Amino acid sequence: MATPQGSILSRMYVCPDCGNDVAFRSRPRTTSEQYILPFLLLRPVRCSNCFRRDYRPIFIPARERLEPVPTRRPVESAEPLRRNVA
Fold first, then answer.
1. How many domains, the chain?
2. Is 42 helix (H, G, I), strand (E, B) or coil?
3. Quick check: is 75 in a domain?
4. What Å distances lie between residue 18 and 9, 34, 54, 55, 76, CA to CA?
């Protein structure tokens, strides 16, 4: 049996501000987002274009959060720095 066209399972994410169709999962910020939203079958998502944060049903696909880019550490030289310090 085919799902109806308006079914929640057949919908895709569309940002209400910019119309972008790519969203990333967002971390829960508050206690209510962490414990109450799962009971309502909702999760926080963020638009990849305009960064608007919104709640969407868990059935609407959203990409996993991007891992933070590791920061480059300064390379330590083998030679100690020779500075004229007073």
1. 1
2. strand
3. no
4. 22, 27, 13, 16, 46
